[in-house]
Amino acid sequence: MTSRLVAEHITKGFGDKTIIDKVSIRADRGELVSLLGVSGAGKTTLFNCISGIYDPDDGQVLLDGEDITGETGRISYMLQKDLLLPHKKVVDNVALPLILRGTSKEEARAKAMSHFGEFGLEGTEEMWPSQLSGGMRQRAALLRTYMFSDKVALLDEPFSALDTITRSRMHRWYLDVMEEIKLTTLFITHDIDEAIMLSDRIYILAGRPGRIAGELTIERPRTERGDFELTEEFLDYKRKITDLLDR
User: Fold this and answer.
1) What percent of the chain is helix, strand and coil (3-state, nearest 5)?
2) Domain residue spans in the chain?
3) Which residue from 15, 40, 52, 224 lies 20 to 30 Å from 234 (Cα-Cα)?
């Protein structure tokens, strides 16, 4: 089976400094794949190459087997901040990607609202972003990302600004919603616990320039991770990742 997204041998530098060197990763349909590494390892640079914001110096990006290297608008991309527009109601924020593609406002609103239930946003449609909690704002931002593309989403530390309790709740919520929407997701994080809790597979990006230092598959099904963080199995994964990061 062809992977939904493949980045092959991606190299990117600026001036005489190479940021990432021959990085190859893939994500299959419905997978949540994390890219884990310390700050400065080149995670965001790789995402910018995958999304088409940057042209890689070498390598290619394939979506369902099609070469999309350097093309923007094919893959959705959510940054750390929710970036909801304060002067637009929540439903209009979520519908914005459809409107920008030429869909009428009425049709875009209707299509956006049809997903509010599965994203746990019922009752917020006509609210302003300022009326939402941090967790609800992130849900709205994730739904807007999904409206942009229901094939692949790149999420750059989307939960990093939340407090610890809200973040833990969002992890469990996101695992549930992933089971519903089957969205192929690449997820940047520097949080080892977060990567283990959410991922099907984890790529460890390390070094200067950044290279793939290892890959781990999380064997426990996403539907059975309620108490995962308290298990010896979880700690074993954490030890393996720490070892790879320290090499």
Assistant:
1) 40, 25, 35
2) 79-148
3) 40
**246/141 Cα distance (integer angstroms):** 34
Q: Mind listing the pLDDT tens digit for each residue in 86-100?
A: 999 999 999 998 898
At 145 the pLDDT is 86
Q: Which residues pair with 11 in a beta bridge?
A: 58
* Pair 211, 58: CB distance under 8 Å: no
Calculate the alpha carbon distances from 214 to 28, 218, 247 in Å. Answer: 18, 13, 10
In this predicted structure, what is the pLDDT of residue 22?
96
Q: Is the pLDDT of residue 41 over 90?
A: no
Q: Enter the tokens of residue 129.
A: 């972003």
Please, are residues 206 and 37 in contact by the beta-carbon 8 Å criterion?
yes
Measured over the CA atoms of residue 2, residue 52, residue 193 and residue 244, the dihedral's sign is positive
Which tokens in the block code for residue 97?
A: 């990607």
Q: What is the mean pLDDT of residues 22-48?
A: 92
CA distance 161 to 81: 8
Report the candidate in 164, 162, 230, 213 with the shortest Cα–Cα distance to residue 43: 213
Amino acid at residue number 210: G
Question: Alpha helix (H) ranges present in 149-229?
Answer: 164-181, 192-198
Average pLDDT, the chain: 90
Separation CA 23–CA 121 (nearest Å): 37
Is residue 149's pLDDT more than 80?
A: no
Supply the pLDDT for residue 45: 95
* The pair of three-digit structure tokens given for residue 118, joined into one six-digit string: 């599965």
Burial status of residue 105 (CB atoms within 10 A of its CB: 0-12, 13-18, 19 or more): exposed
